[in-house]
Write a sequence for this structure.
């Protein structure tokens, strides 16, 4: 289930054909999901940004989290590796596995600084059990596809978002001049009472009296990945990443002290960025960048909502986290006059 299937239309721009990050040509996503026994609820997702280095930039909304490799992105303006997403205590193994995959390739680099982000799944998962292993990372790489699964998959398997079951979500927008912006989130953040969808106070309407709330829910973290086919330079990618944080805010996220809210954006239009020759680049003028800002905001908000709707109720380590019930959501949105007819 996705937001638009329920008649929830966020923003003014139209989505791409998949309404996912894979609407940006060259982007693929693969997942390995681990659900075992009573206490393994985790996994790894790998986002392949393109087949070549691309311009990139990052933004920190709140830094109680990890996204490796950012220093080289800030220094060089380039994203040169796939992006891994997993749980907090599996960042190292995912990073090492991505290095191993890089050096084993036919065009192996002499060094690799992979980008790996994390959010904490210790409520539902035995996060100290180190259940993600190198073979799971390689499987996610091999599974890379333009058909992007959402919800309780990959790195999002054990995540909690605004007191509901969270996880992986994705969405896209196409601007009036034909540029696509795609977003993928690993959503594990927020508090129930703060959740808003298209301006409606859903979290207050669907409080613990209607949908049980797991006790002692911390304000967790979110990783946002933004891809675009617009011809942007690295400093403009930083600006796009900053605007994605407004999409977090529109759903009620506040970058709390205990939250790791990190955004990475990249642009695929300029390619062949290696070598020793002078390069001819394209750049979208700053005076024309506002539609991309709006696209990043809208797609981030909808990706978070799609993560909530795709996720299923999950029990792990003796804790049950309920999904955001779509029927209850439809009732709330309709009562507030925010439900369009379903496509």
């Amino acid at each position: 289930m996705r937001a638009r299937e329920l008649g929830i239309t966020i923003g003014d721009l139209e989505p791409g054909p998949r309404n996912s990050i894979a609407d940006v040509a060259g982007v693929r996503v693969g997942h390995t999901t681990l659900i075992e026994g009573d206490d393994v609820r985790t996994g790894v997702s790998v986002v392949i940004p393109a087949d070549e280095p691309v311009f990139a930039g990052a933004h920190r909304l709140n830094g109680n989290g990890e996204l490796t490799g950012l220093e080289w992105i800030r220094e060089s303006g380039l994203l040169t590796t796939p992006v891994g997403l997993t749980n907090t205590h599996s960042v190292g193994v995912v990073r090492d596995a991505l290095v191993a995959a890089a050096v084993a390739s036919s065009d192996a680099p002499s060094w690799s600084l992979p980008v790996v982000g994390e959010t904490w799944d210790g409520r539902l998962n035995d996060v100290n059990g180190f259940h993600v292993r190198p073979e799971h990372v390689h499987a996610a790489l091999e599974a890379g596809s333009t058909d992007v699964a959402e919800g309780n998959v990959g790195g999002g398997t054990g995540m909690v978002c605004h007191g509901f079951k969270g996880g992986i979500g994705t969405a896209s927008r196409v601007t009036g001049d034909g540029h696509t912006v795609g977003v993928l989130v690993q959503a594990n953040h927020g508090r129930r009472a703060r959740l808003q969808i298209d301006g409606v106070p859903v979290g207050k309407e669907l409080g613990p009296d209607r949908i049980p709330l797991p006790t002692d829910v911390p304000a967790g973290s979110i990783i946002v990945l933004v891809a675009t086919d617009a011809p942007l330079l690295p400093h403009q990618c930083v600006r796009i990443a900053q605007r994605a944080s407004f999409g977090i805010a529109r759903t009620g996220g506040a970058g709390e002290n205990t939250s790791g809210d990190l955004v990475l954006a990249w642009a695929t239009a300029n390619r062949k960025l290696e070598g020793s020759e002078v390069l001819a680049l394209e750049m979208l003028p700053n005076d024309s960048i506002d539609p991309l800002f709006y696209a990043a905001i809208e797609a981030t908000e909808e990706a978070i909502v799609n993560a909530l709707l795709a996720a299923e109720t999950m029990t792990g380590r003796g804790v049950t986290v309920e999904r955001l019930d779509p029927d209850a959501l439809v009732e709330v949105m309709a009562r507030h006059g925010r439900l369009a007819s379903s496509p």
About this structure: DSSP finds seven helices and 14 strands in the chain. The chain has one domain: 3-315. The chain has a mean pLDDT of 96. The longest strand covers residues 54-63.
